[in-house]
Recover the amino acids of this structure.
């Protein structure tokens, strides 16, 4: 029988989609208020894989990812998804727009050393129910030194540019683990 151990904390990641960079910046400010300091930001990338979001977000949609310096417990992702849904609604309310017509799409997830997990409100065969209407899926797996997609991975998440950013996030997570271990042992990592 395997022994039960607490899992390591993971790195919170949020993907943002919008046709307006100012709204992405506004969303980042609200996310930072809710989840703490943003430590990594991706470039802006055109989101051209589908027109699924065009009615809500407009044309010329761009994607950006941010990660947060404060690590989280993986089981917090369900509540975080509900909080990011509230932030989407708040942005609409602040701009006197209907809340059922998002201006910014926020996709929270987390990076662990072995996987990238996304939270969603949509059930499907490969998704696991967490709680309070939220599901999770392992979107990418890490092995042999790189990220690898599953058959269900969204095409943009399988792209080289995204995976390079996720590698940076993973490296930051490894550094945070190392710093934590050094602090626990009383080793000063700065020299």
């Amino acid at each position: 029988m395997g022994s039960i151990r607490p899992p390591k904390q993971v790195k919170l990641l949020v993907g943002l989609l919008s046709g307006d960079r100012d709204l992405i910046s506004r969303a980042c400010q609200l996310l930072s208020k809710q989840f703490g300091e943003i430590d990594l930001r991706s470039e802006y990338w055109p989101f051209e894989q589908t027109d699924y979001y065009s009615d809500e977000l407009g044309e010329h949609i761009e994607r950006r990812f941010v990660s947060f310096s404060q690590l989280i417990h993986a089981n917090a992702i369900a509540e975080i998804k509900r909080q990011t849904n509230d932030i989407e609604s708040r942005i609409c309310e602040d701009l006197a727009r209907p809340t059922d017509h998002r201006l910014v799409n926020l996709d929270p997830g987390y990076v662990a050393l072995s996987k990238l997990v996304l939270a969603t409100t949509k059930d499907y065969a490969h998704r696991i129910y967490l709680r309070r209407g939220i599901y999770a899926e392992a979107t990418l797996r890490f092995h042999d030194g790189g990220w690898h997609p599953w058959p269900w991975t969204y095409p943009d998440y399988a792209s080289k540019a995204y995976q390079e950013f996720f590698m940076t996030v993973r490296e930051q997570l490894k550094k945070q683990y190392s710093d934590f271990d050094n602090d626990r042992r009383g080793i000063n990592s700065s020299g």
